[in-house]
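Team,

Forwarding the record for the chain on the shared tracking sheet. I've put the sequence and predicted structure together so nobody has to dig through attachments.
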Amino acid sequence: MSWDDSDNDKKKDPWSGRKKEQQGPPDLDEVIRSMQEKLGFLFGGGPKNPKNSGGNKTSSAGPSGSNITMLVVIAALVWLASGIYIVDEGNRGVILRFGKYYETTMPGPHWRFPGPIDSATIVNVDQQRFIEVGYRSGANQQASTGVRKEALMLTEDENIIDVQLAVQYKVKNAQDYVFNVRAPEVTLKQSTESALRAVIGKSKMDFVLTEGRSDVVAKVETALQAMLDDYGTGLIVSTVNLVEAQPPEEVQGAFSDAIKAREDEQRYINESQAYSNEVIPKARGKASRIVQEAEAYEQRVVSEADGDASRFTQLLVQYELAPEVTRKRLYLETMEDVLGNSRKVIMDVKGGNNLMYLPIDKLMESSPATSNRSITPPERTTPANTGRDTSYRDRAGRGR
């Protein structure tokens, strides 16, 4: 179906005649042809005139300058708008200009020159990442599997132990992380294994298996961070965790016996210390008691000596006043002390030839409650008819 032509060869709208003639749907071929002509006119082509198709002349109309400028402006705006990018919280944007580092942008909206001038690499600096040395964690909380090639290490005393280590780290410098090392995670893992082997190689097995775990972790963290800084990886170590340190499976039984013997040794040491803590205070208390008794004995002896000296001084005064009476008094007191401990007493009766024998031992056996001091001395039991003068005892003995 052709378009309707007027007498003045003016092309009409392809839909105008059809609207008048028929109210049916438009022809698809005409719609496509119309769109092609419009696009060709916009980009430098012109609509074809069917009347002039056989002649030598062709009518063409070039694109206008305003249309070209508008297209260029639109394209430029779209190209510039493609340079807008947003850096999320906890990330850093590393901008490259013609492949060379230009700047690092902080979180928020930013603009850069679109490609191929600039390119942006987003790096997460708050994410906690981790690596495992000597084992691999199973998925969905399954049991971990050991990697013997990484886990078996030689100690200073030439023993082999199985060590499993986990390291948590973050990105400290986004620029160094992107540019300085091709594979930062691989470098970190190799550096961790190297630092761990260096520390284990300078430690003894018993130290690593028992009280040296925290010391090993501290040394590994320090050595690892120093290596990462030297390589310029841009990573920082957060924590180092010694998951497990044990002897190889082939010698587990022997090491268990050794550990049990070590525990028994420690138990015996604790028991001996408890016994020592019990005995030593008792010995110290006994020694203190002996010292105090000695000091008391010393004070008693000194006091008795002072009392005897004072008594002798007083006797000297009495002796100077009455020498005869004092001598007799001293004699009687001495005899009383001597005969007081004797079990046999023989008395001489004055004016007679018979001797009186007193069995004091028998008397004491008959009355065991009676002491030696309670028995009356022979002089005091002398009958009154003996004619002995006892007045001197009143003066020398009771008169004291």
